[in-house]
Every structure is written in C-alpha cells, then in structure tokens.
Amino acid sequence: MKLIICAGPATTGKTAVLRHLIRKLQARGQKPAFLKIDVQYAEEDEQFAREFGIPTRKVYSGELCPDHCNVMVLGDALQWASSANCDVLMVETAGLCLRCSPYVDGGLGLVVLEATSGMNLPLKVGPMLSLADVAVVTKIDRISQAEREVFRARIQDVAPGVRIREVNALHGIGIDPLVARVDAQADVNGPLLLRGNPPVGTCTICVGKKEIGWQSHFGVVRALENQTFYRGE
User: Fold this and answer.
1) The dihedral of CA 166, 90, 101, 217: what is its sign?
2) Percent of the chain having pLDDT more than 70?
3) Which of these, 45, 91, 215, 228, could form a disulfide with 58 (CB 3.0-4.6 Å)?
C-alpha cells in the first residue's frame, strides 16, 4: 500500500486536489482510503465517502498540533487502510504548525500552496515545504505569468529538490503528473520514521503556563532583544 501525506495552509485547495486524484486513481482500478486530520471541524471524510464510496476516517487533533496528531495516529491508520484492502492511503492534515513536518520516510509528501497568497509565502511555511516531495501550486489562473514565475523561484529558493506542479484544482487541470508520481511511489514497508527533526522542545506555554514575559518561563525562551537563549531545566 502506498502512503500519501498532503499538507498545506488553510484554503489552498488540498481537498480539491485530492478529489481529482482519487477520481483518477479509481478510474485506473485502484482503491484509495482517506484520513482527514483537523483541529476542530472537518467534513471532507463524509463528502469523499458519499462521492467515491471509499473508506474514510476523521481525527480531531484538539489540544495537539495536527502534525503531532498525525504522528500519533498514522500507525493505526495504516493498519485500518490495509485491513480494508486499499492500495493507497491519503492523509490530509491541516499542518498548522510551521516548525514541524507531517511527512514520513517511505511516504509521498505533497504540500499544496495557493499562488494568490503572496510571493513570499514559500519563505514562511518551513518544513511543510522544504521536506516535501512535490509542491502543488493552485489558483494559478488568478495571477499573472510574471507572478507565477516569482512564486516558483521562491519555492526553489526554499526547496531546490522539490518537484513543482501547477494545477487548476477547480477543474482538475494538471492532475495527471500527480497520478504518475503516485504510481511511481514505492509501497510503505517496515517501521516509519518522521521526516526531518522535531522542534527543539516543548515550551512551558505549551504545557499550560499563562504568565506573560520570558522571566516567568524556562526551557527554550525568547526575549525581545535576544533572539534565542536557554534558561533553566
């Protein structure tokens, strides 16, 4: 079974891209499964179950970062999709933590970025882009050719090795190269490891300490006049 993890900022068109990808995979006789990871609301799993009749699941990360939730549930999800005799497991994650990577070694990492979000967006999304295999750029019909070229150049600045695919996710134009990339992907095998390094550590704010000001915290802290320093155990 192949594993595809699709991440990207909100409203970029992740679901639209996966909808066309599922449709084309089904037309080729493959059976996908779909897992949606979001913070507190999602209905894509219900839509795909009705539209394609495929196995779907949904997980709310709640107090967890969606990328961290992905790490927690992915093992169970692979067993679930395998028990349903699926050929491909597609995971769509909100990917809201820009310091983390949702991708795992052995899987295909897709990041979906919208070209209308500004020329500097690729410089801001961190490992979500730099550790991806393919950057899917949507809404290309709403910007000029010059803006498209600048956006591509920004992606290449951050991730020189990533393959860029421009698509019209509304009408499914440009999806075929993604289908070919999925076909070329090897099946997942053996224990999976998170791609890239996790963040340095959990800060005291993450564990519930509400006081304002770095003096009230410990671990990895940051002051206005000092970018990064370590304070205490």
Assistant:
1) positive
2) 96
3) 45
